[in-house]
Amino acid sequence: MARKGSKKLRRIKKTHSWVVILLFLIVQAMAAGLIFGFGSVFLSYFVESRVESELQSVSYLARLYEISLEDEKQEDVYKLIDESGRDYIIRDESGNVIHDKGNITLGDTGKIVLSNVSLSVAEQYDDPNDPVDSIIMGDERYEIGFNDNAKVYEDTEYDYVYVNDANEIDIRFKKLYNDITKSPISNVEIDENMSKEDIDRLVTGKIAETKESTKGIIALEADSTVHLPYWVSLSVNDGKEEFIGKAYINFAITDLGFFAIFIILLVLLAFLIFVIMIVFIISNFINQRKTIKLLFTDIVTNGHNWMWFLYRGEHFLRRWGSARSTYAVVNIVFVKYRNYCVCHSIEQGEKMLKKVYDHIGKHLEKKEMIAHVSNSNFALLLKYEDPDKLKMRLQSIILELEKIDADHVFSFQAGVDLIGVWKNENGRVIRRKDIDLEVEYNNACTARATLADKDESGVAFFDDKLIEDQKWIDKVTERQRYAIEHEEFMVYYQPKYDPSTNKLRGAEALIRWQNEEMGFVPPGRFIPIFEKSGFITEIDHYMLEHVARDQKAWLDKGFECVPVSVNVSRAHFIESDLAEQIRDIVDKAGTPHKYIEIELTESAFFDDKKALIATITKLKEYGFAVSMDDFGSGYSSLNSLKDMPLDVLKLDAEFFRGDSQGDRGEIVVSEAIKLAKSLNMRTVAEGVEVKEQVDFLASQGCDMIQGYYFAKPMPKEDYEQRMKGIE
Ligand code: C2E
Ligand code: CA
Ligand code: CA
Questions:
Q1: pTM of structure
Q2: Which CATH superfamily is domain 473-642+710-723 in?
Q3: Which of 538, 542, 652, 686 to mutate to test the pocket of ligand 1 (most atoms within 8 A of CB)?
Q4: Which of 160, 337, 411, 588 is deepest in the core (most CB within 10 A)?
Q5: Would you say 337 and 373 are in contact if contact means Cβ atoms under 8 Å apart?
Q6: Closest CA to 193 of 174, 171, 176, 215
Q7: Domain ranges for the chain
Q8: Each residue of 271-287: pLDDT tens digit?
Q9: Which atom of ligand 1 is nearest to the CA of 709?
């Protein structure tokens, strides 16, 4: 889960930044498009609307001239046209000047297309009701048709207006701007060739009055007008002649100001958007960092958490994944952390966790990691060269951790998974980038769990056997219920004999599991699993039930029965009504209580003593014998013996094996038998295999022997035969 979480986080991180950057680019492109679009539409509308009116005027003059051709009244017309005050020139096809007036400064030509003016000049002239579309001369009324072959010439002197590649009239704004700024009013030079009219025409306002001009085109007062000259050419007289009139694009400086303000506003808007976006991106980035920090911070230790461990760990392995360093994942557990919290407080407990985290952190080298996973669990990623050295390193860290608090001695357990061995379960070499840290940590935890039975500190390494063990545990756990329901568990009986008389005195019921798939399974392979899982209580009931039923059946058949002892596990003994449960099960079978004995393992005597005594007392009241199993196998429980009203002491098989033989062993056994006798208890020696032992035990007054010397555990049919042998 966490691994998926970390992958998701990486994805969020990536997508998030991409989305923001993409959004940013889109918004910026939109803003630029907006400025450019608005600007150019505004400009061409502005220019064309001005060109259009000039075109009309020049067209009017050209038509006047055309009409005069028919009536041969050119001289009058020239006068009339002159009165318009416009410079013009009339040329024939070969360029010979027919007539001109004013300063002729014709430049390059180009045909114009007016794209943004909705009402074309031609349409306007086609309308018969429009007063401008006809000229009355004398009695005659002449139509004025717009000649759509209009061409534009640049002015060679002030070439600010020109026809661009798209056949539109355009203004060289840059040049204009440069000329204006380069010609401050004090440095104004008057063109000597310029007439007063020219100056008046070109420049209005104050400068014109003082006859000062920049280059003759621009008036620098704020309310002044700028006149940009160009020439409009219209073909007349069926294309044989050309009428060219000087025209101007006029605009007030204030117009430019508005335009400039408009553009500035747009630019400001774009800039504002830009700033907002930048702020957004930065705050987003900061937030992202904060969120990630929060996501990776452990609230208890203020250090790193599991998410971080997975996320960074994978980077670690990939980045420094050279063959030179090998890594190990370690699970360190603060044993009995819960107890500490109960005795003190959770707050104190968490303080201790932080101390532990910080302390381990101090021991880390470069490129090593620690994270607090949960409760008492820490995850480490450590470099190692040699597993033995790693073990020693961990042991020395644990040694210090044990004494981390002056008032307590703690214990810590570590599980280690060496990921330096780059092989998967099929023995195939794994590339480091395919290593799954979660799996490795889980292995480390599994290794650690092998220490969980004890409370002491320790270090355990994960190996393949642990995987096998885990698989076996899963198999057993999966099949346990089916097994109990289908009576796959069988009761074997191991007889107990009196060594001095060789007579059968009792038996112990021992479980066996016969499974189709797994075959014959000895108890050592499944009882510890059931003890851990708690399923053992059901097994105990099952065994008791079957033994009680068997005994009852044998009694009914007239066998001379001896008491059979049944193992009751330690886990079961914490149930306060255990004695009643046992009584009820035996009563259900109708077996007299004296034929059932209850075996309690020695380790159970370390639990709640009072409860234990209460249960034993009750069992005895009901008439069951109670024995202490495996006496001498664990810590000495001599002290418990005096308080427990037990009937039988079972000497552990260890007394009769290997090194324990010999004088010293015999002394211990004989003393144990004496002690039992003095406490009014019978003794059973377990695991006795050789005659010498039998003889020795007989000489010491041991009451019974349960061992291979006399008999191995056997099916009930065989046990029946043994019972028949009783005289
Ligand atoms: P335990 O209660 O100490 O049982 C005695 C074990 O010693 C038996 O092992 C028995 O077969 C073995 N044994 C007896 N005499 C000799 C001998 O001379 N030599 C050797 N080598 N072994 C001898 P088993 O049957 O494998 O049982 C092992 C343990 O499993 C038992 O130890 C007991 O703790 C547990 N167990 C068996 N059946 C049950 C049961 O029904 N309920 C519970 N709770 N535990 C059971
Ligand atoms: Ca036993
Ligand atoms: Ca035993």
A1: 0.58
A2: EAL domain (3.20.20.450)
A3: 686
A4: 160
A5: no
A6: 215
A7: 16-150+162-170+233-261, 306-462, 473-642+710-723
A8: 888 888 888 888 888 88
A9: 18
